[in-house]
Design a protein that fits this description.
single chain; alpha/beta; Gyrase A, domain 2; Four Helix Bundle (Hemerythrin (Met), subunit A); Rossmann fold; 3 domains; 6-stranded mixed sheet; 5-stranded mixed sheet
Length: 426
């Protein structure tokens, strides 16, 4: 494989800029710049081919098998000037047998060299993109190998079940000392229950990664935009006494107790002959239906809005004018805002409490595929003799589905998509 190099830190001025070199020629390339490379770490002066001083850098050396990529790696920790980093990158680019790394190529080599499995690669991608505490915690669990360990546990149980069945096939003409059916059935049941729990939590895990949507809906001029501005802490939506001011869906992203949340301010829902406002109302209804939660802002809390869901909140608007014993807010005084935020946060946290470790649709599809094979195997297990071969094949199919979660099989088609999300240098 080619020896690759790239800037591993962000572009622009910073305290430190790190250039990573990975591959067979990594040490040789570093020697061209600094004369000799320390066995572990040391400060060296970097010079260009004409002998001009480029920078004084901390040089780190990672031997093959003990680096992030699994290859020999040298890191140059430079002073964080863009000019310094660019000068060193130019020198490396002019060397033979070296080339600029592509997006995600260092991490892809870590996968190919067995340093990471596919689930850990996905966890790393999410960790890099994490903006809230909940996103960080979720990504760290996967990156640290929790999902891989769970998949290995399922694989071990299924292999045990398959081995028991294979024994009955191999020794069909001999007496098998015990009936393997109960143990096989128990193993399949345990794996199925754990997979089902994980699969059910993927949808919520995706929302933690991508963000929950909370839509504010109600009639025109009821105070939706004012409420959005208060929740966002700034004026993001135009407020006016003229009904129908909001014509489109306004989105505001915020961190709500560690959870990523996108607030949606929608057009006032009413019948109108204004074509543009009518489009806004239609879009408001559509976005509200797909949101995770809806806050129905009403002047009369006794009204029951159309399409009220079980998780929806009905909130009294203009509480300074229309007092209420229920959930009420005032855009003018700010009364009730903290209580509303706390209630929304509590409900979202309850949802998050149901997530497991798996966090991507790819994981859910693989688990559902495995569950289907386990259901077929369990159904056949209770049938008369002669089904053992079919049950064993179902178990092999279930094991392949589990292996696809961590990248042992059937994942070539998803690799390019995953690594395209990484920056160059990672």
């Amino acid at each position: 494989m080619d020896t690759i190099f790239a800037l591993a830190t962000a572009q622009g001025r910073a305290g430190v800029a790190v250039i990573r070199i990975s591959g067979r020629e990594a040490v040789r390339a570093a020697c061209v710049l600094c004369g000799d490379v320390p066995m572990q770490r040391g400060v060296r002066r970097l010079r260009d081919p004409d002998g001009e001083l480029l920078d004084e850098a901390l040089v780190l050396r990672f031997p093959e098998g003990n680096s992030f990529t699994g290859e020999e790696v040298v890191e140059l920790h430079l002073h964080g000037s863009p000019a310094v980093a660019n000068a060193v990158l130019r020198c490396l680019g002019n060397m033979s047998a070296l080339r600029q790394a592509e997006a995600g190529e260092f991490t892809r080599r870590a996968l190919e060299n067995g340093r990471l499995n596919l689930a850990e690669v996905e966890g790393l991608a999410d960790l890099i993109d994490a903006e809230t505490e909940s996103q960080r915690k979720q990504a760290v669990r996967v990156f640290s190998g929790a999902l891989g360990a769970l998949a290995d546990s399922w694989r071990g149980k299924l292999i045990r079940a398959a081995a028991l069945l294979e024994a009955t096939i191999d020794f069909a003409d001999e007496e098998v000392p015990v009936d393997v059916g109960p143990e096989v059935g128990a193993l399949l049941s345990d794996v199925r229950q754990e997979m089902k729990r994980e699969a059910d939590g993927v949808r919520i895990a995706e929302r933690v990664r991508d963000g929950f949507e909370v839509a504010i809906i109600g009639a025109p001029n009821v105070g939706k935009s004012t409420l959005l501005n208060l929740l966002a802490g700034r004026d993001v939506a135009i407020t006016s006494e003229i009904a129908g001011t909001t014509r489109d869906v306004i989105e505001v992203q915020m961190d709500l107790d560690g959870l990523p949340v996108t607030l949606l301010d929608t057009a006032g829902v009413r019948d109108t002959e204004d074509v543009v406002e009518g489009l806004g109302v239609a879009r408001a209804r559509e976005r509200a239906e797909t949101a995770d939660y809806r806050i129905h802002l009403l002047l009369d809390p006794s009204d029951r809005p159309d399409g009220l869901g079980g998780d929806d909140l009905v909130v009294q608007a203009m509480a300074d004018i229309y007092p209420s014993d229920g959930i009420a807010v005032s855009g003018k005084t700010g009364a009730g805002i903290d209580a509303l935020v706390a209630l929304v946060s509590e409900r979202l946290q309850q949802k998050v409490g149901r997530i497991g470790i798996a966090m991507r649709e790819r994981h859910r599809v693989a688990m559902l595929r495995a569950i289907g094979h386990l259901d077929d195997a369990s159904a056949a297990l209770g049938q008369p003799d002669g089904m053992t071969d079919l049950i064993a094949e179902d178990l092999r199919s279930a094991i392949r589905a589990v292996d696809s979660i961590v990248g042992r099989v059937d994942v070539e088609q998803v690799l390019d998509e995953i690594f395209s999300s990484f920056c160059i240098g990672k």
